Amino acid sequence: MGKKQLTNRQIKAPKVLLIDQDQNNQGLTETREALKMAEAVGLDLVMVGQSKEAPVTRIMDYGKFQYQQSKRQKQTSKPTVKEVKLRPNVGESDYELRIKRAQDWLDKGNSVKFLVRLRGREHQHRDRATDLLNRVVDDLGEAGKVQSFDKRALTLFVAPA
């Protein structure tokens, strides 16, 4: 949820369209009256929308509403794709570090894209790059399953197992 809604005394309009805690439309009500009604039941008056004549407000537990919104946001967020770039002559310690980091990402539910970049004369030894990607597949083992392996583009997509 991007912007924060106005609550209780932040609502400056003289009159509001009120929906009470039981989802019943109370119609056009003075803001002070609506605030008193909300306080009487121990809930908040929250502005949920705008109409032509007055803001639309609802009597609800605002803290609970925010919690449910954040939960819904987390459920709909999709897993991200992390990228690991390698060179065909990568050092052993760098390689192990990148594999370990990729395993951590896979454990957290993210997908990982491995990309081998070639420069200059390295293009003559593409077989070394494909061997490196095959080694990545072997080293990741059970941590992830291969989604796609493109030998022409030298890319490898691995999804969490």
Explain this structure to me?
The chain is α/β, with parallel strands linked by helices. It has two domains: 8-74, Ubiquitin-like (UB roll) (Roll); 81-160, Translation initiation factor 3 (IF-3), C-terminal domain (Translation Initiation Factor IF3, 2-Layer Sandwich), CATH 3.30.110. It contains four helices and eight strands, in the order E-E-H-E-E-H-E-H-E-H-E-E. It has helices at residues 31-40, 62-76, 92-107, 126-140; strands at residues 15-19, 25-30, 44-50, 55-60, 81-86, 111-116, 144-150, 155-160. The strands form two sheets. A four-stranded mixed beta sheet has the order 2-1-4-3. Strands 5-6-8-7 form a four-stranded mixed beta sheet, with helices on one face.
In short:
Helix content is about 35%, strand content about 30%. It is built from 4 helices and 8 strands; from the N terminus they run ββαββαβαβαββ.
Helix content: 25-40%
Give the percentage of residues in beta strands: 25-35%
Terminal CA distance reads 31 Å
Describe the largest sheet.
4 strands, mixed
**In CATH terms, what is the fold-level topology of the largest domain?**
Translation Initiation Factor IF3
The CATH class of the largest domain: Alpha Beta
**What is the CATH architecture term of the largest domain?**
2-Layer Sandwich
Strand order of the largest sheet: 2-1-4-3
> Which class do the helix and strand fractions yield?
alpha/beta
- Tally of DSSP β-strands: 8
The pLDDT mean sits at 84
Instruction: Summarize the helix and strand pattern as letters.
Output: EEHEEHEHEHEE
User: Which stretches of 5+ consecutive residues score pLDDT under 50?
Assistant: none
